[in-house]
Amino acid sequence: MIKGLLDGKRWAALWEAIPEYYIPGFLQTLKISIVGLLVALVLGIIFGTLSSMKFKPAKIISRIYVEIIQNTPLALQVLFYYSVLPMVFSGRGFRIPKFVLGVIGVGIYHGAYISEVIRTGIEAIPKGQSEAASSQGFSYIQTMYHIILPQTIKIIMPPLANQALNLVKNTSILAMVAGMDLMYFTDSWGAERGYFAQAYFTSAILYFLICFPLARLARYLEIRSLRLPKTKNVDKILKEEGLC
Fold first, then answer.
1. CB of 115 closer than 8 Å to CB of 43
2. Radius of gyration of the chain (CA)
C-alpha cells in the first residue's frame, strides 16, 4: 500500500483524472450539501416547532418523524428512496435525478436531528418569556417569530454547524446509488485503475477542505455562545422589535 502510494506514475494518472472525475464529484457533493442543508433546516424548523407546541397531535407527528428517521440507517433510507420513488413516478414518465434523490436523502435524515436541536433550543428559553408575550396580546406564531426563535438561534448555532459538518460527510453514502458525488467518482476511478491509495487519499483531502472550515466554525460558535447571555428580558426584545 505504501509503495503504491509513492508511485509517481499513479499520481500522474490521478492528475489527469482530476478534471473528469474529482472536480465534477467535488462540485456535486457541494451542491447536494448546500441544498440538502436547506431542506434539513426547513424540516427542522417545522418539526422542531411542532414538537414544542402544546397541541398534542403536533407533538405526536413530530415524534413519529424523528424516531423513524433517527432509528434507521441513512444507507437504508437512501436505498428506499432510490427504489420506491422512481416506482411512484414511473407511470407519469418522470425520472427523478440522482441529485434530487441525494438531497431528499440527506435533507430528510438531518432534518430529524436539526428538529431536535431546535426543540432543545426552544425549551431552553424560560416559559416566562412566552407568558409575558401572551400577556401583551401576541399569538403563538408572533411569540415564536419575535421572542423565542431570535433567542433560540444563538443557542443552537453551534450544534447546527456540527449537523452541517455531518451532512457533508454523509453525502458519501450516495455512492451506493450512483449519486455522482465525490465518493462515487472516487470508487469509479479507483476500481477502474486499481489505484485505490491515490483515489481515497485524494478524496479524503477534498472532504477535509469542505469539513475543516465547518469544524472551525462550529468551534468558534460554541466558544462565542458561552460568552453570550442566555436570554433577554422580554420587554427589551419588544422594544428592539418596535412592538411596544
1. yes
2. 22
Q: Tens of pLDDT along 164-179?
A: 999 999 998 888 887 7
Three-class SS state of 118: helix
Average pLDDT, the chain: 83
Q: What is the DSSP letter of 112?
A: H
Which residue bears the cell 468551534? 219
**CA atoms of 14 and 206, how far apart (whole Å):** 14
For the question of whether the overall pTM of this predicted structure is more than 0.90, the answer is no
CB within 8 Å of 230: residues ≥ 6 apart: 124, 155
CA distance 92 to 129: 50
Is the distance from CB of 184 to CB of 178 less than 8 angstroms? yes
Evaluate whether 183 touches 203 at the Cβ level (below 8 Å). yes
DSSP state of 27: H
Q: What is the pLDDT of residue 169?
A: 92
How many C-beta atoms lie closer than 10 Å to residue 225's C-beta?
A: 15
Q: What type of residue sits at position 243?
A: L
Burial class (CB in 10 A: 0-12, 13-18, 19+), 139: exposed
Total residue length of the chain: 244
Helices (H), the chain: 2-5, 8-17, 23-51, 56-70, 74-90, 98-124, 127-135, 140-143, 149-170, 182-193, 196-227, 234-240
- Quick one: DSSP state of residue 125? S
Nearest to 30 by CA among 206, 212, 219: 206
